[in-house]
Design brief:
174 residues; mainly beta; two-stranded antiparallel ribbon
Length: 174
């Protein structure tokens, strides 16, 4: 990809209507959102080249949707968090129309373990692939106040999934 000195940053204007509720030690939220994204950065082939691309600003997008979140401490060491996002209009061919996550985080003394599953919904540019789940884990041990050691595992189910690489014609595995 060749640079573009005339490239402008993307700008996002957001309007949100949010509702927050606490029931005991559990927090819930629901948010309606409307985003206007301008100066969208996209990749395009360079005229006269068979393989070189450049980045340009191209147009504006309006994205509307709804997001739900919760945070629930189970005890002094374990916290569960989750979210679900549904895009109701403006989703492009390269983004999922639904996504969500569920996270369990266990912390005791200098030890922390984080288990996360995330859902990525259907993407229009890959009609043969439906939604999929990823499972990730991280274990962290704090040796002293200045040093921590972490072991991470990504895609623990070891499945290959294709997803578009940010508004290009390239596909990558997460």
């Amino acid at each position: 990809v060749q640079g573009n000195k005339n490239l402008k940053p993307e700008e996002i204007k957001t309007i949100e209507l949010a509702y927050f509720q606490r029931l005991g030690n559990t927090e819930f939220s629901a948010t309606l959102f409307h985003n206007t994204i301008s100066e969208i950065i996209t990749t395009t082939p360079i005229t006269g080249s068979f393989s070189a691309n450049t980045v340009i600003n191209q147009g504006e997008e309006k994205v509307k949707g709804l997001e739900f979140e919760f945070n629930k401490p189970i005890n002094n060491h374990l916290v569960m968090r989750g979210s679900y996002t549904m895009i109701t209009s403006g989703v492009d061919n390269f983004s999922p129309n639904r996504s969500g996550s569920l996270i369990a985080n266990y912390h005791q003394d200098r030890f922390n373990i984080n288990l996360r599953t995330s859902y990525h919904g259907r993407i229009a540019s890959i009609p043969t692939r439906g939604g999929y789940y990823l499972l990730n884990c991280a274990v962290n041990y704090k040796v002293n106040p200045s040093v921590s050691v972490q072991l991470s595992g990504q895609n623990l189910s070891n499945k290959d999934y294709l997803s578009p690489s940010s508004k290009t014609n390239l596909l990558q595995t997460p």
